[in-house]
Each structure stands twice: as C-alpha cells, then as structure tokens.
Write a structure and sequence with these properties.
Layout: H1 11-22, E1 24-30, H2 35-48, E2 55-59, E3 62-69, E4 72-79, E5 84-89, H3 93-100, E6 105-108, E7 110-111, E8 114-115, H4 120-131, E9 136-138, E10 146-149, E11 158-165, E12 170-177, E13 180-187, E14 191-193
Parallel strand pairs: 3-9
Antiparallel strand pairs: 1-5, 1-6, 2-5, 3-4, 7-8, 10-11, 10-14, 11-12, 12-13
C-alpha cells in the first residue's frame, strides 16, 4: 500500500501570505463607469510587471439587486460605491506609480497627497454587505404616483401608490372599486407606470 506523499507548502506561498498581511487596503477614485476596466487593467499590470508580491487584491464593491423595469424582474450587479475601487497592497514608490498611471484611475483617497489606508474592519464590513443574501429592489416608483395594474384580479384597474415596501418588493395601491378607494397590496411586477 502506497503512503500518500505529503507536499511541502511552497515557500513563495508562505512568503506572499506574510507580505499580504503587511499590505493595507487603499481606495482608488476612478472615472465614473470605469471601475471594472480599472480592475482588469490593474490585474494585468500587476501580473506583467511582477508586482504580485506587493499588490494582493483588487475589489469593485458590487451587490446583486433586483431591478423591475417594464414588468420584468432582472438581477443586476449594482456598484455600492460608484467611482471607487479597493486595492490591498504594500504602498511604495513603484506600486504608487503603477497604480496611479493605470488608465481610468484619477487618484488615491487620502489626506493631501498621501494615500490613507482603511481598516480591515471596514473592508470586512463592505465584503459582508456585498454577500448579503436578500437582494434589494431597485425602486422606480414613488408615493402618490398613478399606476396601471397589469396582473392579478385587478388587471386593467388604475390606482395610486399609497406606500412602497422596497425590501419585500411590494406596493400598496389605492384602487377605486365601486366608488370607494380600497388598498390592495401588489408586487412591483404587477403594476406599471401610466
């Protein structure tokens, strides 16, 4: 019977992990809408310039949200902080220049010209928020707005939005039935703007 061969951990992995522990999280400001492009460019530059021992992680904070548009529900990745990218790195002159000269990056966030790191606790909070299970609804309705019901027993009825429950994706609609306003609770998908 063969005994399993234990592989010795690679020294570079331990060394990189030890260096990563020294790295700090910095916030980059980018041109609006360029966050993902900056993330891709930075990852490519880190690899090609062999900075993997000084730049460890790049995050564009996003969260899955449900957007209801024209009666259709779709899940979209919404940026939590548009125009910002998080980078875990050891900041020195070379890494600063490499990051700062990446197309789409406008600046590091910090006091004066000095990039200011954020705490691990703050980054953990952002990452927890990114992983929250219950997606939020992207509301495109407002209280007092007139809507037409498109689904259910009140199809074709017109009503006015009395209240909005974003977390549940529900609307309370005042519908005129036999001359009396009656509140009806409906899903975002069951109504459309007039």
């Amino acid at each position: 019977m063969d005994t399993p061969v234990q592989q010795k951990p690679r020294e570079t992995d331990e060394k990189t992990q030890a260096l990563s522990d020294k790295g700090k999280w910095y916030i980059l400001h980018t041109y609006a809408g360029h966050e993902n492009k900056v993330e891709r460019s930075l990852k490519q530059r880190v690899e090609s310039m062999k900075f993997t021992d000084r730049v460890f992680d790049i995050i564009v904070p996003t969260r899955n949200t449900i957007k209801v548009s024209q009666g259709k529900k779709e899940t979209v990745k919404e940026k939590i902080f548009p125009g910002y990218v998080l980078v875990k790195m050891i900041l020195d002159d070379e890494t600063w220049i490499m990051v700062r000269s990446t197309p789409g990056v406008t600046s590091f966030i910090g006091a004066g010209n000095k990039p200011t790191p954020i705490s691990e606790k703050e980054v953990e909070a952002i990452q927890k928020f990114m992983k929250l299970e219950e997606p939020m609804y992207k509301v495109q309705f407002s209280v007092g707005e007139a809507v037409k019901i498109t689904d259910g027993p009140f199809t074709e009825f017109l009503g006015t939005i009395e209240s909005i429950d974003e977390a549940r994706g529900k609307l309370k609609i005042l519908v005129s039935i036999f001359g009396r306003e009656t509140p009806v609770e409906l899903d975002f998908l069951q109504v459309k703007k007039i």
